[in-house]
Design goal:
Helices cover 74% and strands 0% of the residues. It has helices spanning 2-8, 34-60, 62-69, 73-101, 103-120, 127-154, 161-169.
């Protein structure tokens, strides 16, 4: 159990003052070599695409889901609505969770929950369960967006990090 706790805990690094995180729960901003920057931008693209993919797939395939699950038009619309409702309300709570428990725990937990919920969607056969899974997926997918932004910011040199933030939001 101690090894698992060690795995979840953030490693303690002594960064110079200008590289330390500005806010608790945010990453440090050390200088990286070009290969590490490329890795950060690739991870950012992967995580950012993954964060929006579930919502996009449900929005595009609403008619097919309506047929398979035997839903009315209103019931099918609630699948997208429940995702958006929890995503909007989750933002402030997730900031507090990230600050309270650390970035590493936040990232590992968010990615694990996202993967579990994605797999759980394969087992859905009724409207209530689908609605619950879509709501939970909305909450967790919003947790991936800061991870994408943090990686985009790490991919840029220090003087361009705010430009990286704007690119990540875009």
């Amino acid at each position: 159990m101690t090894q698992f706790r060690d795995f979840l805990d953030d490693k303690a690094y002594d960064f110079p003052e200008h590289q330390r995180p500005a806010v608790a729960g945010s990453p440090a901003t050390p200088s990286h070599d070009p290969a590490t920057r490329l890795a950060h931008i690739l991870v950012a693209v992967l995580v950012g695409t993954t964060a929006g993919l579930g919502s996009a797939l449900v929005s595009v395939n609403t008619a097919q889901m309506q047929q398979v699950l035997g839903l009315s038009v209103e019931q099918a619309a609630w699948l997208t609505t429940s995702h958006v409702m929890t995503a909007v309300s989750a933002n402030l709570l997730l900031i507090k969770i990230r600050q309270q428990y650390g970035l590493r725990r936040f990232a590992l937990t968010s990615l694990s929950l996202y993967a579990a919920l994605a797999l759980a969607h394969l087992l859905v056969s009724d409207h209530g369960t689908a609605l619950l899974l879509r709501a939970a997926s909305g909450f967790v997918s919003v947790a991936l967006i800061p991870l994408c932004l943090f990686h985009v910011m790490q991919a840029f040199p220090e003087r361009w990090r705010l430009r990286g933030l704007v690119l990540g939001i875009g």
